[in-house]
Structure formats: structure tokens, C-alpha cells
Design brief:
- A hairpin with a 6-residue loop joins strand 37 and strand 38.
- With about 775 residues, the chain is mainly beta.
- The chain folds into 3 domains: about 280 residues, Collagenase (Catalytic Domain); about 300 residues, Tachylectin-2, Chain A; about 140 residues, Trefoil (Acidic Fibroblast Growth Factor, subunit A) (Trefoil).
- An 11-stranded mixed β-sheet has the order 9-5-6-7-8-2-13-14-12-10-11, with helices on one face. It has a 6-stranded antiparallel β-sheet with strand order 52-51-48-47-44-55, with no helix packed on it.
- The chain contains 3 helices and 55 strands.
- Helix 1 crosses helix 2.
Length: about 775
């Protein structure tokens, strides 16, 4: 998912938190009744309207959105704020222009996108003609990479129910959200409303609309002209994605809101039809793929799996001369009555097109049969995982397998080494089990995993092991480092155990682990995944711990749920996991060689049979941005590219240096750490001062409010950075336009020396 971008395309990607889009006129041309008054649909040309025939008090205010407050004009009708005629927003989300809303308030609302494109749903038994819903879902399923699944215990889901019109919220709003379908709403209308529910708006709100259609303002009914504003005229921010689409299923018709059916929208291209409700157009499909560009389908790992709750793991490596990588999938099983470890090789992972043309998925071209790992295994549900790395320096990777067991009555993590994986996937021999004595392990069924990386830069691989435990009554993820693996596989010393902050629902939740540079600053980061159900849904989630210390092995620059600046806390890897105790893992790899890391999600589930599943979440590295001040065109710059704490941040002419590249790391309370790529240090207000004119510097991450900023969308394509602790904005002192101009904090005023233009740059 691309960060810091609101997609406005053939259908506009939702950005307004909680929205409702309602078609009060019956959808197939029949009349509807509201408050006892019959309204002829021809009055509005089938256009979406929340309260047909009613007008309210016109007001202006600030709408609390996912991207910060935005100016907006609205009507207050029936205790609701009505925007653009059909967008119904609770008044609690709209403040008067002089009322200062709490920074980050919109982050209480769920992301507009459904995690991994999975949409749980229910159909009310009282809804007539249910085939229009099932046919609409079948249409979406056959055309897109989204998956609609019958709800079981999911807390966020879509409910199809009877109503007075055809209506929906926009995007995933959290909890149950209802698509209402009156008896006259057709399958096409249901397809349209599902489009809203997955995060899509109307085509005619695009900024480039006037290049494709003429709005006949004189033909619009009195009081409804505001429905024809573009999103930029309404104060919204966004990007038009793809070409304008007359054929979009979400485009207004020619006579929408017309006086006596007069034409209000005239296409500049002759002979085209607008306002169709037959199905998703080709460009609609392209828009959906853009919005859900990180979604790939699950691929099954072939072969038998004895238990869905078996410990398991996944790793990515290169075994043969083909440039495409291999997957190694691992699990513990007891097919012959003896618990044993098994692994399979998935050869030459490729990105293949789905048969329905709705996207792609990553999958190996073939799978090997299971290879047995020798030695004892106390329990098939033991926490377990795998990693690969070249320990003996001969150019062939070793396979390291860990599991938790208690052969002598004490729960301990053990690891074995499979030496020299061959081009056929076999190992030449297995080591005896080594005890990983760093840290403690409360239960043999606790989740566990392993990763390999050279953390201290001495040319020897270090082993990071993580487990879930609750020694003090709180379920917690612990990790520790075994330093400097020898060529025989022995560990020279251990670090103390460190913890990942935050909740973990169950000590038997399986765990995933990998080490990779997720923010491009040259320092290793820790990627941790686990299965949990904080909202009642079993979900595979992950977090990133930044900058592992070369001396202690601990995370030094805090934790963030995602490489995306718009995400907070743990992010979903995949949303369909049957139980928290099922085997699961994560691995990091750049499959498409675009410089941004992809995450492989692995879990064992029991859908029809116990089976391993993989999916890939693409492009999860932190996105880097250059931040240019609008008044000068110069960019934020760490003076002299210094890596020292306390160095001033200034403005300077744009260049290619990493001291002008900054990543946004989301915080659980709705703000961002702004991190310089070259140093890994945070933008910081000197001494946490709240004073006007306080110095802006870089400093080691400390998690304080003086390092947290809200990214405020100013509605003209620019943003301001507002410090949490002071409420003041970053400001170029005295409108200086020269290189070296000082950046201070100052009362937010909306002037151009506080406006930042964000440009994504390569790592």
C-alpha cells in the first residue's frame, strides 16, 4: 500500500474515516417513500442523495479525516453533516473553523482498506431477492483480487439488509457496516454499493473532470450544485489515478439532479454513455488494483500436514542457478507416531497471473516432497521455526531449525543445523541438537522462531531467537541473541533477553521472525509476527523493531507496526487464520527487485484439510520522502550530513544526499516519528521546549512527545508538521529563502514557510 497518498481514480479511494453514501431514490426506476412522501427517481436522475427533497442549514467547518482536518462545506440535515449530497458524516466529526480539534483524532477510525482485500459479510435472512447480493459478490470475486468470505467471528464486516434506498459507507469503517438495498435495488446497484464499501467514491469528483465533461450548472436543481464540485474545490487532497472513465459504474448519469430531467453532465467525447450500472469497467478494475496493490492471493503448500497447530516456519533462499528464489516450508508432525520435523522446497518463486485476470500471486513452480529432519521432537505443537545462512563460508546455505522442548523436564530452545543445502534441496548432514541457553522459555508449546544476521559486523552470523512467554503474568514476546556462530555452529555468548512492547493474546500463539533493513538506513531491523485475536478475529500481524544494537542485540529506535506512514501498531499480514495456536511465520525478501522489501506470510490452517498457506505482502519498506518548503523550494536537511545528536536541521537546496531523506514511522497514538535516513535519528525539538522559536535538531530516538509530529493536510497539496508536545509547527525563520535558513518551531499559521511538499524518493 503506498503511503501518504489518497487515491482518487475512476472511483475515489476513501479517505474520510466514517462516511455513508446513500441513494434514496429506488435504484431501478421505481418510486420510494421517505417520511410518507413518495419521491420520483427521475427527479434526481438516479444520483446518490441522502435526503431527497430536503435542504438544511449550509455551514463550513473542518472535517476530521485520516489525513488530518480538512476544510469542508456541508449541510446540516437531520442531525447529520451532508457533504456532496450523498456523503453522510456524524456531526461529531465536523468542527467549526475556529475550533481546534485534537490532533490525530481521526486515527480512532479504522483504515479505509480491508486488510489483504478480505471482506467478511452476512446477508440478513429478511432481505428479499438475495441472489442480487450473491450475484454482485460473484461479479466482484470474478473480476478483482478481493475476497468476500462469509462472516464467522470477525468483528469488522459488511451486513446486507433491507432499507429505503441503496446505500453504503465508504471503506472499512470498523465494526458492522450496513449496505442497505431497497426492493428496487438491482444487482448492478449492489455492485455499485459494494464498490463504496471497499473504499471507492464517484468518478465525477476527479480534479481533471472538466477536461472530460461539461457541467451544465443552469440545469441543476436549486440547492444541489454543490454535488458537482470536484474534490479539490471541496478542499480535499488526492491524486487522479489512470484515465478518466466515462464507463465507470460509479459515474453520475447525464440527468443527475437535473431540472425536469434536464442534462446536467455532458461528456466532451460524443457517443459515450455515463451512469451505467451493468458492472465494473476495465478502468474500475485498474483502480481497485491500485488501491489494493499489496494484496496477493494465498498459495497452498502441497502435501500432508498432520496438525494445523504444529509448529512451522518459512524461509527464502537461493539454491539453484535459476535467478528466482526458493521457499523452504517447515512443520513438526508425527505421521508414523514419532514427532519429527519436515521441510519442503518450493522451487523458483514466480509472480503469476490469476486465472480470472484480477491480479497476481506469488507461488513456486513446484514443491518437493517432504524431507525428514533427524533427532527427537517432544511435541508436534512445540514452537518452532527455521532460518538459512552460510555458516562455514563455502557458498552453500545451512538450514537452521529451532524448537522448544523439555527432554530433561526444563523447557529449552534447541537448534539443529542442516549442513550445505544442495541444488536438489537436501542437506549433507544434520548436527546434534544445541541448547540455546540465552533467555528463558516457559512452555514447550510457546511460539518460537529464529533469524540469522551479522549484527555486529564481524563477518560471523548471529542467531536471534524469540519466544512468547508470561513469567510475570503478562503474555510477552522475548528475544535474545546468540553471538558469533562458529563454523561448527556453536554460539560464543548470549545477550540478555529483550521484550517487544504491546499485547500478545496467547503464549501458544505461533511466532515469526526475520531480520532485514526495513528503512534503508543500513542498520538491521527486527520483523516480528504472531497470530492474535485482539478484536475477536484470528489474524496474523507484524511489527518492526528498528535498529538492532551491535552490542546488546536490542531494538534501539522503537517499534512501528508497518513500513507505511499511515499505519499504527501491528499491521495485518493476512486476515484469515483459523486459530491463534496455528503454525505461522514471516520472511523478508524483495521478490520484484524494486528496492522495497516484501513480506512472506506463512500459516498452517484447516480449511478442508490441514494445509500450509503462503501469501506475499508487497513493498513494506519504509517509504522515504524529501520535504520541500513551499515558499523557498528548499528541503529539510541535516547540517553537513552529520550523524551526531544535536545537529541542527536547516533548509538547503535539494540534492541526492540521504541527509535530505526522511521516513515517517507511525506511533500507536496517531503521530509520526520523522527519521533521517543517513543517521537513523529523529527530528526533535531541543529540550522538549514549548517556546516560540525553539531549535529543531536530530536526536537519538527516545519516544518522547517532542519527537512526535502530526502530518496535517492543508488542502492545497501541502502539509505541515505539528509537534505533539507544543502544538507548534516547523517553520523556516523569517521566510528565509537562502541555503542554511533555520528551521524552528512556531505557532501554526498556514503561511508558505510552514508548508511542506512531500516527494517520495528511492531508498
Amino acid at each position: 500500500m503506498k503511503a501518504l497518498k489518497t487515491l482518487h481514480s475512476t472511483l475515489l479511494a476513501a479517505s474520510l474515516g466514517v462516511l455513508a453514501v446513500t441513494t434514496q431514490a429506488a435504484c431501478d426506476g421505481t418510486a420510494t417513500v421517505e417520511n410518507g412522501t413518495e419521491t420520483a427517481p427521475s427527479t434526481f436522475g438516479g444520483a446518490e442523495l441522502a435526503y431527497p427533497g430536503r435542504s438544511g442549514v449550509r455551514r463550513t467547518g473542518s472535517l476530521r479525516t485520516e489525513q488530518g482536518p480538512r476544510p469542508v462545506a456541508y449541510e446540516e440535515i437531520n442531525g447529520k453533516a451532508v457533504i456532496e449530497g450523498d456523503i453522510v458524516v456524524p456531526l461529531a466529526l465536523v468542527t467549526s473553523p475556529d475550533e481546534r480539534s485534537a490532533s490525530g483524532a481521526a486515527r480512532a477510525y479504522a483504515s479505509a482498506r480491508w486488510p489483504n482485500g478480505v471482506v467478511p459479510y452476512v446477508i440478513d435472512s429478511a432481505l428479499p431477492s438475495q441472489s442480487r447480493v450473491t450475484d454482485a459478490i460473484a461479479h466482484w470475486t470474478s473480476k478483482t483480487n478481493l475476497r468476500f468470505v462469509a462472516r464467522t467471528t470477525e468483528s469488522d464486516y459488511v451486513r446486507f439488509a433491507s432499507g429505503s434506498g441503496c446505500s453504503s459507507s465508504v471503506g472499512k469503517v470498523g465494526g458492522v457496516q450496513t449496505i442497505e438495498l431497497a426492493s428496487g435495488c438491482s444487482t448492478g446497484n449492489a455492485i455499485h454499493e459494494i464498490g463504496h464499501a471497499v473504499g471507492l467514491w464517484h468518478e465525477q469528483m476527479r480534479a481533471d473532470r472538466d477536461s472530460y465533461v461539461t457541467i451544465n450548472w443552469g440545469n441543476i436543481q436549486s440547492g444541489y450544485s454543490h454535488n458537482f464540485q470536484t474534490y479539490t474545490a471541496s478542499g480535499y487532497d488526492g491524486l487522479d489515478v489512470g484515465a478518466y472513465d466515462y464507463g465507470s459504474i460509479m459515474h453520475y448519469s447525464r440527468d443527475a439532479f437535473g431540472i425536469n430531467g434536464a442534462e446536467t453532465i455532458t461528456p466532451l467525447t460524443s457517443g459515450v454513455t455515463i451512469g451505467q450500472r451493468d458492472g465494473l469497467s476495465t478502468r474500475d478494475l485498474e483502480s481497485v488494483r491500485s488501491i489494493y496493490d499489496g494484496v496477493t492471493e494465498f498459495s497452498m503448500v502441497s502435501g500432508w500436514w498432520g496438525s494445523a497447530n504444529a509448529g512451522g516456519g518459512i524461509a527464502v533462499t537461493q539454491l539453484d542457478s535459476d535467478p528466482r528464489p526458493e521457499l523452504i516450508a517447515f512443520h513438526v508432525d508425527d505421521p508414523s507416531g514419532g514427532n519429527n520435523g519436515y521441510y519442503r522446497i518450493g522451487w523458483n518463486v514466480s509472480n503469476v497471473a490469476l486465472s480470472n485476470g484480477a491480479g497476481t500471486k506469488y507461488q513456486p513452480t513446484s514443491w518437493s516432497g517432504p524431507y525428514s529432519i533427524g533427532g527427537w521432537w517432544g511435541n508436534s505443537t512445540s514452537g518452532a521455526g527455521i532460518a538459512v545462512g552460510d555458516l562455514n563460508g563455502n557458498g552453500r546455505p545451512e538450514l537452521i531449525v529451532v524448537h522448544v522442548d523439555a527432554p530433561s523436564g526444563q523447557d529449552t530452545t534447541w537448534y539443529r543445523i542442516g549442513w550445505d543445502l544442495t541444488t536438489s534441496g537436501t542437506v549433507t548432514s544434520w548436527s546434534a541438537p544445541y541448547a540455546f541457553t540465552g533467555g528463558f522459555h516457559g512452555s514447550s508449546t510457546s511460539g518460537a522462531d529464529v533469524a540469522l544476521a551479522d549484527l555486529n559486523g564481524n563477518g560471523k552470523l548471529d542467531m536471534v531467537v524469540a519466544t512468547v512467554d508470561n513469567p510475570d503474568g503478562a503474555n510477552t514476546i522475548y528475544y535474545s541473541v546468540g553471538w558469533d556462530l562458529s563454523t561448527s555452529g556453536a554460539i560464543s555468548s548470549y545477550s540478555a533477553a529483550s521484550t517487544k512492547p504491546g499485547w500478545v493474546g496467547n503464549t501458544t500463539a505461533d511466532l515469526g521472525l526475520d531480520v532485514a533493513d526495513m528503512d534503508g538506513n543500513g542498520r538491521p531491523d527486527l520483523v516480528v509476527s504472531w497470530v492474535d485475536d485482539p478484536s475477536g478475529d484470528d489474524t496474523h500481524v507484524y511489527e518492526v523493531g528498528y535498529d538492532l544494537s551491535s552490542s546488546t542485540g536490542a531494538v534501539t529506535s522503537g517499534w512501528s507496526g508497518s513500513g507505511s506512514a499511515k499505519e499504527t501498531t501491528a499491521r495485518t499480514l493476512n486476515a484469515r487464520v483459523g486459530e491463534t495456536t496455528q503454525g505461522a511465520d514471516v520472511a523478508v525478501y524483495d521478490f520484484d527487485n524494486n528496492g522495497s522489501k516484501d513480506l512472506v506470510s506463512f500459516h498452517i490452517d484447516h480449511v478442508a484439510d490441514n494445509t500450509g498457506y503462503i501469501s506475499v505482502l508487497k513493498d513494506q519498506s519504509d517509504k522515504m520522502y524529501r520535504l520541500a518548503f513551499k515558499h523557498s523550494g528548499k528541503v529539510m536537511d541535516v547540517m553537513n550530513a552529520s550523524t551526531d545528536s544535536g545537529v541542527e536541521i536547516q533548509q538547503w537546496s535539494a540534492g541526492g544526499g540521504d541527509n535530505q531523506k526522511f521516513a515517517f514511522r507511525a506511533t500507536p497514538d496517531g503521530y509520526y516519528f520523522v527519521v533521517a535516513k543517513h543517521s537513523g535519528k529523529c527530528v526533535d525539538i531541543l529540550n522538549a521546549s514549548t517556546a516560540e522559536g525553539a531549535k529543531v535538531q536530530q536526536w537519538d530516538w527516545n519516544g518522547s512527545d517532542a519527537q512526535k509530529f502530526s502530518l496535517v493536510n492543508l488542502g492545497d497539496g501541502s502539509h505541515s508538521l505539528r509537534a505533539k508536545h507544543s502544538g507548534k509547527c516547523l517553520d523556516v525563520y523569517a521566510f528565509n529563502q537562502q541555503d542554511g535558513g533555520s528551521i524552528l518551531q512556531w505557532t501554526c499559521n498556514g503561511y508558505d514557510n510552514q508548508k511542506l511538499l512531500l516527494t517520495q524518493v528511492t531508498n
